[in-house]
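does this look right to u?? 3-hydroxy-3-methylglutaryl-coenzyme A version
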Amino acid sequence: MAIFRYVSRSTFRANKAFFTKTRSISVLREQNLGSNVGPGQVKIVEVGPRDGLQNEKQQVPTDIKISFVNKLSKTGLKVIEATSFVSPKLVPQMADCSEIMTKITREPGVNYPVLTPNLKGLEKAISVGVKEVAIFGAASEKFSQANINCSIKDSLSRFREVVERANLAGITVRGYVSCVLGCPYQGEVSPEAVAEIAEEMYKMGCYEISLGDTIGVGTPGSLNKMLTAVRKVVPIERLALHCHDTYGQALANIYCALEHGIRVFDSSVAGLGGCPFAKGATGNVATEDVVYMFQGMGFHTGVNLTDLVRVGNYISQNLGRPNRSKVAVALNAKNL
Ligand SMILES: CC(C)(COP(=O)([O-])OP(=O)([O-])OC[C@H]1O[C@@H](n2cnc3c(N)ncnc32)[C@H](O)[C@@H]1OP(=O)([O-])[O-])[C@@H](O)C(=O)NCCC(=O)NCCSC(=O)C[C@@](C)(O)CC(=O)[O-]
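got this back:
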């Protein structure tokens, strides 16, 4: 009972209503959610080589990054966000983006998207044969300024140019919305603000909108409100969730999103990550933990968990730190 002292009555009521609505896991799993992902399946977008490494203070050698992507490619993951074509002055870790895209071994059936904030980034990405790019905006004005040096309105004009040019080149575009559950500069972000930019990005031609809890502050309570607003304007099968695990809420949030019908989730092997423009934000939810949960629920991920843990160990050793995935720690203790 002691725990209830720390939970406000309204939060408790919202959570109770939410969990009373919860369908059984088997019904959840068999839902057919349109063209993106088949029934019983989830799509994992591995963002370790990009989101995971972009905040590393020490420059990670390019050959280690290439080997990291190549090893991930052998685990069964079908989407690996490989790097970003952003300003090397602002994010020096991603300065080797062209070399990475030229030298990785692209496995058939694996997609290697990259971030491109503007036409300059897109043209560079096209020149090295990229097939999918992502534009990244924010639901918070202050974060937009800090991250991409322009207002939300101006970012949307830039993104439109990127989408049009990408379409001409036969390149698909994913859209990120950051700060969907809170902003490091302005605090609260309204669900309506998230819905507005998500709708704009969807309408301009992004095939999928990834909703980013950039600083990992969300809970199933706040996520539920935000998704209820966003799904009114973007079809649920076109939404993805991108969780950072700063407050340890990521798996609970992913479960909540599954309940809403989302089947695409971004994560980072070994829980790598953080954003250079979001102080205090820790890593993405660990891919190993996500895969373990999905497998336990009977979802098909296509990923070999043992191989994945080995890749997480590989990159963690190269970064000189322990693997941050709880599942990896548990499996490593059994001498995997
Ligand atoms: C967006 C810009 C480029 C605007 O930057 P800007 O300063 O407004 O751009 P500019 O057009 O005025 O150009 C200034 C200089 O940057 C160069 N430049 C301009 N564009 C490029 C480019 N594409 N690639 C390489 N160089 C570029 C350009 O050539 C020029 O060089 P100079 O003449 O000074 O030598 C800049 O602010 C930037 O790169 N920001 C970095 C953003 C970033 O990487 N953030 C982290 C990723 S987002 C994230 O982590 C959140 C996410 C996606 O994971 C989801 C979540 O967790 O919520």
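Residues 1-12, 14-20 have pLDDT under 50 and may be disordered. idk if thats expected tbh
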